[in-house]
Write a structure and sequence with these properties.
Elements: H1 2-60, H2 65-72, E1 82-87, E2 93-94, E3 101-109, E4 113-122, E5 127-136
Antiparallel strand pairs: 1-2, 1-3, 3-4, 4-5
Amino acid sequence: MKSRKSTLFLMEQVIVIAVFAICAAICVSILTSSYLMTRNALDTRNALMIAESAAESHKAFGGDITRIADILGGTADLDSNTFTIYYDTNWQPVNAEDASFVLNFTMRDDTLVIFSDVSVSTNAGSELVSLTAAVRRSGL
């Protein structure tokens, strides 16, 4: 009789351990996805802050792409009215080889208004933020 009780007790213990193992696996999965969602939200927030900074610089300097690029840490290509700045995972400017994120700034000229298109994307090309800013031409 005692042997039957101990066998039953061991079976119960195995079942309880299996249930806890399954619950632990589910919790680890949820925590991992939560971490990834938080990281994506932080990257989007930082991308938005950098894009807004570029758009506000466009307004503050009246569309002077050279001054905008200098303030943001890039080098303007005056022929195409663009510049690109590369950032690492901590959102510090780096060279293109070490980049995780890319800010692209492009200006478009209109008769009365100078537009700028600002986009921040991952190095793989997935766009995080895209903004358009406009400033009236000076002297009009």
